[in-house]
């Protein structure tokens, strides 16, 4: 899981993200306005992105090139998030049931 925390750390400036993705800073801000990415802000108000954000932006750019709208991309992201939430809740419930009834995995 250490790899995940590394990918999620918001440490990259918008200029570097622009270089890495080939997107303009304006495009990156637009995707933020559309609620497709969520950078953090430094004490001075500068946007900070993670490697996961860079990957997401590349995915967004590829989908946009294929003609997918930002609205469709957002709907897809929300659908994936709901599916992940359901999966996590199901795993938690299974764990609680197993703990309650002493069921152990082999």
From TrEMBL:
Keyword Glycosyltransferase: no
Gene Ontology molecular functions: DNA binding; DNA-binding transcription factor activity
Residues annotated as domain HTH merR-type: 11-79
Pfam family, one: MerR_1
Lineage: Bacteria, Bacillati, Bacillota, Bacilli, Bacillales
Stored InterPro entries: DNA-bd_dom_put_sf (IPR009061), MerR-type_HTH_dom (IPR000551), MerR_fam (IPR047057)
Coiled-coil blocks: none
Keyword vocabulary terms for this entry: DNA-binding, Repressor, Transcription, Transcription regulation
Protein name per the record: MerR family DNA-binding transcriptional regulator
Keyword Cell membrane part of the UniProt annotation: no
Domain of life: Bacteria
């Amino acid at each position: 899981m250490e790899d995940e925390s590394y990918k999620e750390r918001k440490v990259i400036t918008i200029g570097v993200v622009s270089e890495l993705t080939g997107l303009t800073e304006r495009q990156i801000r637009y995707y933020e306005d559309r609620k497709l990415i969520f950078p953090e802000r430094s004490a001075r108000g500068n946007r900070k992105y993670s490697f996961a954000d860079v990957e997401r932006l590349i995915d967004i750019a590829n989908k946009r090139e294929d003609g997918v709208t930002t609205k469709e991309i957002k709907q897809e992201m929300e659908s994936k998030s709901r599916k992940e939430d359901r999966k996590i809740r199901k795993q938690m419930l299974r764990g609680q049931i197993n703990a309650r009834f002493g069921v152990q995995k082999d």
